[in-house]
UniProtKB/TrEMBL annotation:
Protein name per its UniProtKB record: Protein unc-93 B1
One GO term describing the cellular component: endosome
One MF annotation (Gene Ontology) recorded for this entry: Toll-like receptor binding
Biological-process GO terms, alphabetical: intracellular protein transport; toll-like receptor 3 signaling pathway; toll-like receptor 7 signaling pathway; toll-like receptor 9 signaling pathway; toll-like receptor signaling pathway
InterPro entries the UniProt entry points to: UNC93B1
Lineage: Eukaryota, Metazoa, Chordata, Craniata, Vertebrata
Species the sequence originates in: Acanthisitta chloris (rifleman)
Membrane-spanning segments: 32-51, 58-76, 82-104, 238-258, 270-288, 295-315, 321-340
Keywords attached to this entry: Membrane, Transmembrane, Transmembrane helix
Amino acid sequence: GLLQMQLILHYDETYREVKYSNIQLEDIDHKVLMGINITPVAALLYTPILIRFFGTKWAMFLAVGIYALFVSSNYWERYYTLVPSAVAIGVVIVPLWASMGNYITRMAQKYYEYINYKEEQEKDKKKQQTSQDACNTYIIIFQTVFYSCFHLSFVCAQMPMVFFLNNYLYQHNHTLFAVKHCGEGTGWCASPMAVPQVLVLCGAAYEPMEEIDMRSIGWGNIFQLPFKHMRDYRLRHLFPLFIYSGFEVLFVCTGFSLNYGVCALGLEKLAYLLMAYGFSCSSVALSTRRLRRHIPLLAGAFIHAGLLVTLFCWAPQPRHLAQAPLLYIIAVLWGMGSALNKTGISS
């Protein structure tokens, strides 16, 4: 969202080059993306230790605070503010998602225990097995509800452009007057508010005695946990999907939105394309909760594969607004694939 704002505010390439060359950031987008995407490679080594030391809730609080710091650094655009804050985000991305996944799973378990307290007291083995399966169902429901809310952030992030910036943009006939080929040929103040929300709305994930039991695990064992988990062949098979799930969102927000959507329809339609993607993600995520866990993964893969073949074979014409319905359909279908992909991986 922030990179999109940078693009919109400085879409005049001449002004952009002059401004960022003065602060030694001639290629700001790539340097910030490198900081955000390369740093998490080392996170496997320190994430368990960080969550063990701070706890699940406070690890989330720290990570959201660093996200707010990155947003704030865009008010004072300097090399020593943008690049270090982008690297800091890369450092906390993995701890944020690890603690978030742990927190959602734990809340689902506690909710199940709350509504089935009497059933948990029975010792019958068959009923214990049934209760375990029921708990897994609640975990899937909690994950899909979370992703439904999370994907609405793509919609909310477009509000400044829809209600404010679009009024100051030139129309597509002006901004795309020299464009010949497309496709293969080619919220600022809200973030700090999220920090206190974590403290106020999120209770402790574990009881005090449970935290003590967790801290009794030796540092060496905590350090080895990620590698021990990888002994499970199912996780090894999912590993390429973990990587793909990050790149496919980056592609739809940059490659598809710019090289196809903006190139064909103009910059003023960028927000609406991403909103269609966000609404599609949010609505599909909830509908997958009754499916078997492997079905969303396979369905998302087939949808994205078909769309990638389509995008390789078809390139839109610049300034041709009749193509808009097809581009919106592709954005919606890609959102469906993203929702299936992410909820399937989480489940």
